[in-house]
Design brief:
The complex is a heterotrimer of chains A (255), B (321) and C (122).
Chain A lengths: L8 H21 L8 H33 L5 H6 L10 H4 L5 H22 L5 H29 L3 H14 L11 H7 L3 H19 L20 H10 L1 H5 L6
Helix pairs in contact in A: 1-2, 1-8, 2-6, 5-6, 5-7, 5-9, 6-7, 6-9
Chain B lengths: L4 H10 L12 H20 L1 H5 L8 H26 L5 H9 L17 H21 L5 H29 L3 H20 L11 H6 L7 H19 L9 E3 L4 E3 L5 H11 L3 H32 L5 H5 L3
Antiparallel strand pairs in B: 1-2
Helix pairs in contact in B: 2-4, 4-7, 6-7, 6-8, 6-10
Chain C lengths: L4 E3 L27 E7 L7 E7 L3 H12 L7 E6 L4 E3 L4 H5 L23
Antiparallel strand pairs in C: 1-5, 2-3, 2-4
């Protein structure tokens, strides 16, 4: 299926939120069984489970709207498993490979910051259904933000090696951070004025944690974007081919 | 009449009084427990890998969440069990060291590959089913911390078997390809599952002493028979077949008879010659080695913080109430 | 009381002969994250109960780990953690001396007193 021709900004926005949650959750789930300590394996899997759950909530809402619009039956699974990469609207950062624990932590921290302040704003949205999902997700996000901030501090202010790995992670990932607050049409349509506060809160939080961790934010570097309008990195294709394999090999069956 | 420490110990066990870490215990009891509990813990942690293969390929969002939660539970179970073993005076790092050096065993079932999605169902239904058969009696095992860990494990484990059966049940009602997938997984997992109960009683050297100490409460063959009886009935609901031409109900014994287990395969896998022994161990070692700098960083940070904040240490406890 | 209480780890590392205290070999690495005991109060529960242990580098991490490991099914509304080395435990050798003296103080229990049936609200 394709959702390319859909013009409804709410549907596009829901897919954007769902895709972000699903793809970062997918990446985090790759750690399950491979974490640096059993307790942390469990912690990151909890986060991945929250993210898959959030994705499902947003997909289900989007699916009901698309079904109403097109008259065909669309489910959370057709949205996750039957779209190609050009239909996915997640930010590029979410799809980048996990790298080492430092890159994973940095990715999760950045995503958590943006999702936290975004959901905080959405929890007040006039669309009650959207506000409800955001409010539920916000509770999960407070923990993600706390957990990932703690790890940024530990790695930034831990050993020389951990600091270097953290700074390397920043060098690799920083140019993918601006996309989160580089708003496209459908986001502006839903978020309106609240983008100003979201952007400000995010910047302040990241600056504060980095400062405490003794980490330096690169200045004046090129910033990548495109994920929100379906222009992705090469990595997303591989995620989808793995994730969608069974649905593609055995179409239209129950699992 | 004065009784020896050893006699007092056995009396306690006979009276079903739990042995606690501070109590006197024979060295052999302690060693047996460390071996058994750590093997059990290793099995949980290595057991995450064959299923972990399919997290990124789960065919629906619902199945993905279930599988993730289930594998995460296994990490938790490993953790509870390592903690129980730690009360016997061995550290978790030391147990890892034994595992990584190839000196500790884990359940051989996890040295078999997961080839199709149906294997997720078969592992839940058959492998977890066999594990539960082994584990339920362990909730009453004589060593307190082990028994308490097992109570928690069994409570959480009950959804694992159910989700596995449900997953196969959906396949069994699906297309011809799905049915074939389902039967194929059952064919591959059945015999290794029977081996999970360990060698036959007459070849199992540890059984007699372990039964006397109530570390074990049923013999390998007793549990295996219970498992066969249970599965032989449940499989009828799936309209599938167990890959054993000799399987049939024995009216006289009120049990199912089953065919001969290939013990040569069992010993070979145990020796390291299973299809995935090397991969599984290498994966665990890599996770541990790659995590070393992370663990060191957290330790270094904790030391720095406690040095900096000696006067401020109440802040953590303020959150507690 | 000093004589009855000894400082030891939960699980007694290195104190008495032939208890769990004797470490089986010297391979343990020195930089292992310390062990913590976890106590959880459930929604209906009046007090915190010991639920198990875990490893964590510091108290902040121990609280987070306790949440992730021991409340995955909504088991709790409050967590206490304490580093295992700070738990002091009574010794099984003193069980009789510590606890048996209470056994014959039956007058401490309400059922000890035989009162007239007419007496209400007591």
């Amino acid at each position: 299926m394709t959702t390319n021709e859909i013009e409804n900004p709410l549907i596009k926005y829901l897919l954007h939120l769902a895709d972000n949650a699903l793809i970062i959750g997918h990446r985090n789930s790759e750690w399950c069984g491979h974490g640096p300590a059993l307790e942390q394996d469990i912690a990151l899997t909890n986060i991945a489970l929250d993210q898959v759950g959030q994705a499902r909530n947003f997909y289900q809402y989007a699916a009901s709207l698309i079904s109403d619009l097109n008259g065909e039956i669309i489910t959370e699974d057709s949205l996750a498993y039957l779209r190609d990469s050009w239909d996915f609207k997640n930010c590029l950062l979410a799809e980048l490979p996990n790298g080492d624990w430092a890159q994973t932590i940095l990715k999760q921290f950045i995503v958590s910051v943006y999702q936290y302040y975004l959901y905080q704003a959405l929890a007040q949205h006039e669309n009650e259904k959207l506000a409800g999902i955001a409010a539920k997700s916000l509770k999960e996000l407070s923990y993600h933000l706390r957990w990932s901030s703690d790890w940024v501090l530990r790695l930034g202010d831990g050993t020389q090696e951990s600091k270097k790995r953290m700074q390397d992670a920043i060098a690799i990932l920083w140019s993918y951070t601006k996309e989160w607050t580089d708003y496209v049409d459908y986001e502006l349509n839903i978020l309106g004025e609240s983008i100003i506060a979201i952007q400000k809160n995010c910047e302040e939080k990241i600056t504060a944690v980095f400062e405490e961790a003794g980490l330096t934010i690169p200045q004046d570097i090129w910033m990548h974007k495109g994920g929100k309008i379906g222009k992705h990195t090469e990595h997303l294709g591989y995620i989808l081919s793995e994730m969608q394999f069974l649905q593609r090999a055995y179409p239209n069956v129950e699992w | 009449m004065e009784t020896s420490l050893e006699e007092q110990f056995q009396q306690k066990i006979d009276q079903e009084i739990k042995i606690e870490p501070k109590d006197w215990m024979p060295e052999k009891y302690r060693q047996t427990l460390i071996r058994q509990i750590s093997q059990h813990a290793h099995s949980e942690v290595v057991g995450m890998l064959p299923e972990g293969n399919w997290i990124t390929r789960a065919p629906s969002l619902r199945r993905k969440a279930i599988l993730l939660a289930k594998i995460q539970d296994e990490a938790g179970h490993g953790l509870y069990l390592y903690s129980a073993a730690e009360t016997l005076g061995i550290s978790r790092d030391e147990m890892y060291h034994q595992l990584h050096a190839g000196n500790a065993k884990y359940s051989s079932i996890f040295n078999y590959p997961t080839l199709t999605w149906a294997d997720m169902g078969a592992i839940g239904w058959l492998v977890d089913g066999a594990a539960i058969m082994n584990q339920v009696p362990l909730c009453r095992t004589s060593f307190g911390p082990y028994a308490r860990a097992m109570v928690r494990v069994c409570k959480e484990e009950s959804f694992h078997q159910r989700q596995g059966f449900e997953s196969l049940w959906v396949l069994s009602k699906g297309t011809d390809e799905q049915k074939r997938m389902c039967q194929d997984a059952i064919n591959r997992w059945w015999w290794p599952c029977l081996m999970m109960f360990g060698p036959p009683d007459d070849e199992s050297h540890n059984t007699i002493q372990s039964m006397q100490w109530k570390i074990k409460r049923f013999s390998n063959d007793e549990l295996r028979q219970k498992f066969v009886d249970m599965i032989a009935e449940q499989i009828k609901i799936l309209s599938m077949k167990l890959p054993d031409p000799d399987l049939k109900w024995n009216e006289e014994k009120k049990h199912y008879d089953y065919g001969k287990i290939n013990w040569e395969e069992f010993w070979q896998v145990l020796k390291g010659n299973g299809p995935c022994n090397k991969e599984r161990l290498d994966t665990r070692k890599k996770a541990w080695d790659d995590g070393a700098w992370v663990r060191d960083a957290a330790t270094a940070y904790a030391v720095k913080k406690s040095n900096n904040q000696l006067n401020n240490s109440n802040s953590v406890y303020a959150n507690l109430h | 009381m000093q004589t009855f209480i000894r400082k030891m780890f939960y699980g007694d590392y290195g104190e008495e002969k032939n208890t769990a205290s004797e470490s089986s070999s010297g391979n343990a690495s020195t930089n292992e994250w310390p062990l913590w005991e976890v106590f959880i109060r459930s929604k209906q529960g009046l007090d915190h109960k010991h639920v198990g242990s875990l490893h964590a580098a510091d108290a902040v991490m121990a609280l987070e780990n306790a949440r992730d490991v021991y409340t995955r099914r909504g088991e709790g509304v409050s967590i206490w953690i304490v580093e295992s080395k700070n738990i002091h435990a009574s010794s099984p050798d003193e069980t009789a001396a510590l606890f048996e003296p209470a056994n014959d103080k039956i007058y401490r229990h309400p059922s000890f007193y035989d009162l007239p049936d007419e007496l209400k609200h007591m």
